[in-house]
Design brief:
It is built from three helices and 14 strands. Strands 1, 4, 5, 6, 8, 11, 12 and 14 form an eight-stranded antiparallel sheet that branches. Strands 2, 3, 7, 9, 10 and 13 form a six-stranded mixed sheet that branches. It has one domain (39-218). The chain is α+β, with helices and mostly antiparallel strands.
Length: 250
């Protein structure tokens, strides 16, 4: 009399355990696929440790890396761009006294074809100049030949992004941030860009060179701006004195 309900309970328990096992297996498979899809590990090595441009920290995240940097040189040289400058851009690069750039080698492992990797750079402008452009150039690891970067950009998703510039321009071997308001002295700006790492070497591991270049107005333009500013101050002060004298007469 009690045997049939007992069998039903036992069967139900087995069925529930089996269903739980299937669900657990599915979850583990999903987690495994997700982990595999975000398995890339990236490291950056600064090639010029003696200069005032430095990597101060780097942390791998799921599907990306966050890099903190300090850019603190002051020498100006003409910036030799391979492409037409965006409207309102600047043409003097901020470099070391020996005219070297902020160069680093990026190495990666665990890349998967089709997967996108996000770089986030948090950069302190510790130079004497406001920046009106910022460039990420892609090179080979000896910095002798430009390389093609597998950039990814979607206007709707703003995958290429900066909180300092409104203009974003991509070429095969350089990403350029430009426009307003610019990266001011003493501020830390955020720059994000995405690329498919696997495409660099058609392999899950590899390396490439990355050159970062901050640009500012050329010295002649800065001198003109300085003269213009001085003239404006002179006119304002003269006008103020004339107004004060007029008030005294009244």
């Amino acid at each position: 009399m009690f045997e049939e309900p007992f069998k039903r309970k036992k069967f139900k328990r087995k069925f529930n355990m089996k269903r739980l096992s299937y669900l657990t297996l599915i979850c583990l498979l999903i987690i495994g696929v997700q982990a595999k899809a975000n398995a890339s590990v990236v490291s950056l090595v600064d090639l010029n440790l003696a200069d005032a441009m430095s990597i101060t920290g780097q942390t791998n995240t799921v599907g990306g890396i966050t890099v903190t940097e300090r850019y603190a040189e002051s020498t100006l040289i003409p910036y030799d761009s391979q492409y037409p400058f965006p409207v309102g851009s600047c043409t003097s690069a901020i470099v070391t006294p020996s005219h070297t750039y902020f160069d680093k080698v990026v190495s990666f492992t665990g890349a998967i074809a089709g997967d996108l990797f996000e770089f986030e750079f948090q950069i302190l402008n510790d130079t004497p100049y406001d920046w009106c452009d910022y460039h990420f150039e892609i090179w080979d690891t000896t910095f002798t030949t430009r390389q093609t970067a597998s950039w990814f950009y979607d206007d709707a998703q703003l995958d290429l992004f900066s909180d300092r510039f409104t203009g974003l321009e991509l070429h095969t071997d350089v990403a350029t941030f430009y426009g307003t308001p610019g990266h001011k002295v003493g501020d830390t700006g955020v720059y994000r860009l995405k690329m498919e790492l696997f495409a660099f070497a058609n392999s899950d591991f590899g390396s490439f060179g990355m050159r970062q270049v901050a640009t500012t107005p050329e010295p002649a333009s800065m001198a003109i701006f300085g003269i213009g500013g001085s003239m404006l101050m002179f006119v304002r002060r003269r006008r103020a004195r004339l107004t004060a004298k007029a008030n005294e007469v009244i």
